[in-house]
Amino acid sequence: MVAIARFLNVTLIVPELDKASFWADPSEFQDIFDIDHFIASLRDEVRILKELPPRLKTRVGLGMFYSLPPVSWSNISYYLHQILPLVQKHKVVHLNKTDARLANNGLPLEIQKLRCRVNFNALRFTSQIEELGRRVVRILREKGPFLVLHLRYEMDMLAFSGCTHGCNDKEAEELTRMRYAYPWWKEKIIDSKVKRREGLCPLTPEETALILSALGIDRNVQIYIAAGQIYGEERRMATLAAAFPNLVRKETLLEPSDLRFFQNHTSQMAALDYLVSLESDIFVPTYDGNMAKVVEGHRRFLGFKKTIQLDRRLLVNLVDEYKNGSLSWDEFSSTVKEAHAYRVGSPSRRVVIPDRPKEEDYFYSNPHECLQLLDEPL
């Protein structure tokens, strides 16, 4: 949105955050990000205001504005020819969806670099979140190296994706009910087995335990779980805890008093996990959601820090073959290692798939226009 406002030469109002989602988080932008730094650091690029000027606020109060979701993955000419005339006509345009609304590729280089500047410099968490993040990292570092496991196995993720592998009938029914209860989740009838086979499901904690072991991760390493509440936690985490006894979370490393301001503010809790994820020796996401992709790109920006990009489609089939006895442990482990030898966040160009932006590499997971590739002069 900053890049679009800059290109159109229009004023940007600090974004309002969605409060109607599953998490029902009341946080405002300034509860998560340092708003003054955000505005000041971009002042030579775009005019950003905390709120609408009084005259325009009155217009909006009277319903005199235009609201729309921009078309996903649009190029800059769409905003120039479709959105800018609306701003000129209505004075205020409310873009009510802002995720993945700009193409990954084919944009002017200065736009791509501005997207990086916003993401890696202008968007800084509040001092309270930053300070707590540093404390968690310090506690972990005192005990040696650590791996962050972004374990996307919360209730909303499973209900939304329709992935019920490893769940009992009662749990599968509960997840289906939840999916039908949320009207903005469009896909209702989902075949969990097919989806899992195609690699479109988050890996289960049990699958993750096998895969980390197969990759040769030291069983005594500290593993920080970056996640909300794991669905069916005690039962579902037992295998992972047995394989890797040093599992920790922010809730186990900090005192309850440290987190009291963050309770029921899942975005602020996620911000804390984000900071710890950036600093880890290895980052392993079990699903490629928005946070996992942006952490991956940020770690590339910080010097291509190791991020293991799991090939879920291959892995679930290998896990099934190992479990049914078709593969020995040694065969399973060597195949997993071989498949991921080059999937570690090393310098590379984004994969571009014309006309299929959802399937190509996401800009923020590998913003190569902003990165110092190893074979390029500084």
UniProtKB/TrEMBL annotation:
Annotated localization: Membrane
GO biological process, one term: fucose metabolic process
Cellular component terms (Gene Ontology): cytoplasm; membrane
Location, primary (coarse class): membrane
Pathway membership, UniProt: Glycan metabolism
One Gene Ontology term of the molecular function aspect: glycosyltransferase activity
Coiled-coil stretches noted in the UniProt entry, renumbered to this chain: none
Position of the signal peptide: none
Sorted UniProt keywords: Carbohydrate metabolism, Fucose metabolism, Glycoprotein, Glycosyltransferase, Membrane, Signal-anchor, Transferase, Transmembrane, Transmembrane helix
InterPro entries: FucosylTrfase_pln, GDP-Fuc_O-FucTrfase
Top-level taxon: Eukaryota
Membrane topology: Single-pass type II membrane protein
Similarity section: Belongs to the glycosyltransferase GT106 family.
Identification of the protein by name: O-fucosyltransferase family protein
Organism from which the protein derives: Vitis rotundifolia (Muscadine grape)
Lineage: Eukaryota, Viridiplantae, Streptophyta, Embryophyta, Tracheophyta
